[in-house]
Specification:
Helix content is about 40%, strand content about 15%. It is built from eleven helices and nine strands. The strands form two sheets. It has a six-stranded mixed β-sheet with strand order 1-2-3-4-6-9, with helices on both faces. It is globular.
Amino acid sequence: MQLKEIRYEVHDNVAWVMLNKPEKLNAMSWGNWAEIEQCMAAAEADDDVRCVVITGEGRGFCAGTDLTGQGSEAEWPPRAHQGRTGKVRTRYLATADIFRCKKPTVAGLNGVAAGAGFSLAVSCDIRFASDQARLTTVFRNRGIVADTGSTWLLPRLVGPSVAMDLLYTARMVGAEEALKIGLVNYVVPHEEFRTKLEEYARSIAHGPSLALELDKTLVQSWMERSLEDQVEREQFLQSYTSGSDDAKEGRMAFIEKRDPDFRGR
C-alpha cells in the first residue's frame, strides 16, 4: 500500500488503521479517504485479519475535514477503487467501506471526533472511548448539511430523535453522556485506553470469526426483514456454521470444561 498520513499494521489478528496527522488532530483530506479505502480493502482481503481498529495518533481521534488545504490530486495516494468505478465513486464512501466490511470494526476514540471524524466513528461496529473523548457532529456550526453518511448511520445507532438533537445543536458530547445515550459502547480511563483497546480487539479477533462475521450481516440487515424472515435467516446461517472447525472446537471445549481456542475457520 502507498500510505502517507495513515499507518496500517497487523498484530495478533488485528488490523490497526492509525490516523497519523496529530498536528492537525488527524483532520481528513481527500487523500486520507483514499488511504482509508486502501486499508479497508487490505483488511478485507487478508484472512489473517479478524478485527479492524481505527484510531488516532496524538490528542485526537479525528477533527473532521482538513480545512487548511487538500493538496494536489496528483499527490494523493491511489484509491482502492480504480477505473470507471473510482471515477464516479466519491471518496466519502469510505465510511460505507467501513460499515460494509465483513469483519468486526472498532473505533478507538482517544480524543475529539468531529464532523467527518464523527461519521468515521459511527461507521464502525463498536466505539471504545477514552474518558477524554468528545464527539460532535459540528456541521451546523459550519452552515452546511451533514455528510460522510452521518445522517444514515447516526439514527440507526441512537434513534432519530437523539440523532436530530445532535445534528440540530452540534453540541459537544462528553464520553459519559455518549455512553449513556448509546453513542459509545465503552469508556475507560485515558491512561488505560490503549491497553484496554488492544485487549478488547484481541478478544474479538480470537473469537469464532466466521460466526461473528455472519452475526454482523444479520444485525446490519435486521431493519430490512420481518422477525420471521430474520429467524429463518439465522437458522440457515447457523446450520452453515455448525460444521465449521470453530463450532467443533466450541463443542469440545464445553465437554472438556475449558476455554475454546478458536482459529477463525
